Amino acid sequence: MATFASSVIHQLAYPSLLLIISILALAAFRRLNRKRVTAAMPPGTLGLPFVGETLRLIKAYRTEDPEPFADERMRRHGGRLFTTHLFGERTVFSADPEFNRVVLGGEGRIFEGSYPSSMSTLLGRHSLVLMKGALHKRMHSLTLTRFASPAVIRSHLLPDIDRVVRRNLRSWPASLRLLDQAKKITFELTVEQLISQGPGEWTENLRHYYNFLIDGFFSVPLPSFLSFTTYGRAIKARKKVAEALMELVRRRKEEKMGESVVESAAEAERSKKKDMVDELLVAEEGFTEEEMVDFLLALFVAGHETTPTIMTLAAKFLADNPSALVLLKKEQNEIRRKKTDEFEALDWKDYKSMPFTQCVINETLRFANIIGGVFRRAIADVHFKGYTIPKGCKVFASFRAVHLDSHYYEEARTFNPWRWLNHNNNVSKDGGQEAGGAPIFTPFGGGQRLCPGYELGRVEISVFLHYLVTCFSWEVAEKDKLVFFPTTRMLKGYPIHVRRHHSL
Ligand code: HEM
């Protein structure tokens, strides 16, 4: 009897107790909320206890239309800056190009990169993305010289890109996932450009582990000793990739030391065409092997996910906009028609005579950029338009929210490559300059962390589109959809049937 009574009491009491605790917790959290979003900070709400507004953001970004998340908050709080709570932290979300400029331009002075430790472990502490200060400046400029200089692109990178794109497209099956094929192309390119390795068993092996490593960036970082989880597998794969790169760096170092004595034909060929390892080996700083490996590995990651996604999305948007596809085909066929030999590679002059293709690339970057924005942390109190963003606060500078703002782009939520005709890449719609001096088109970021692959990525996408439209036609094989979480991508990788019209 007593047991029954106590059980009833428990059954009644537990829910009430839970209710009371929840109400108290919510009240405490509200008070905390009021305290933590201070009058001086941009207005906002911190959402639910602990999770904040993270689940709402994820839910929105898993659909084809994530914009309501930012739209609703901007409307509610009456501006392009609002405070929210994401991934465990109070965060100022910015859809304001002027604030984004302050964030990008304030690197190292008032803001700095902020990555969860799970990500730093995968990247390695000597990666460019995590480097700071003078060393970052030096390495960033070295990477820029290597990948963004027109002279280097013209003489080395473009011929390599042409060759690797053709080699891949030549062996395409009739049905494929475009994203997978695009990733294979950019991986082979990266391997050639960074470490001068051609296709083959070594490269395929590296790609195998590398794919596991990449999955780790988009997984829940459960303890790494749980090797059966995605994150645990990624940590193991990172070790394998780093070991392979370390072996290569050591071999090349030894070769370099013995270079003055005997030089093999392969070395002689390579020394004419320096790769990234050569650059690192001769750099004045005298990098350690570990520094070189981390640096190379992060370059693989940075260049490999972004470019193939844009290649795939450009193809998808072209297929959805037949008049744009017709015009782009006309432009590319014209370039091919002028070649005396039908298999002649594309050169710099060809690349520079693709104005509509550049419009399509710009519009793809604007409409569905893979990097929707960047997280930073304030390292000093930052004052902006009457608000104070306190030291230690996280900010998210959203490029996407600016790119899709109808205040800056007419019919901003429509794919319209023609809007870019007669504009250079950094100029806003209709030749209008910028918003209050701040750029409104920032797919490659800006400031000290401006993407060093901005030109290389463009060239790769242009060459890919050239051979895609001049040699193939394609149709969708399976219904697919565009999602934005954890990254912008076609959920199934855009499965298509291709028909070859021309050999390559
Ligand atoms: C369409 C293709 C690409 C897009 C949209 C893109 C976009 C971006 C963006 C927005 C950033 C800035 C991140 C930040 O400020 O935190 C960035 C940084 C970076 N990107 Fe790219 N990227 C592309 C291709 C490439 C390629 C091909 C490379 C290879 C060289 C590359 C290497 C890097 C590196 C190393 C950084 C870090 C720079 C630093 O922190 O100093 N990217 N990229």
TrEMBL record:
The chain crosses the membrane at residues 12-29. The keyword Metal-binding applies. It comes from the Eukaryota. It is a single-pass membrane protein. Belongs to the cytochrome P450 family. Its cofactor is heme. Keywords: Heme, Iron, Membrane, Metal-binding, Monooxygenase, Oxidoreductase, Transmembrane, Transmembrane helix. One of its GO terms (molecular function) is heme binding. It holds the Pfam family p450. PANTHER family: 3BETA,22ALPHA-DIHYDROXYSTEROID 3-DEHYDROGENASE, CYTOCHROME P450 26. It comes from Dendrobium nobile (Orchid). This is Cytochrome P450 90A1. Heme binds at residue 451. It is found in: Membrane. Pathway: Hormone biosynthesis; Plant hormone biosynthesis; brassinosteroid biosynthesis.
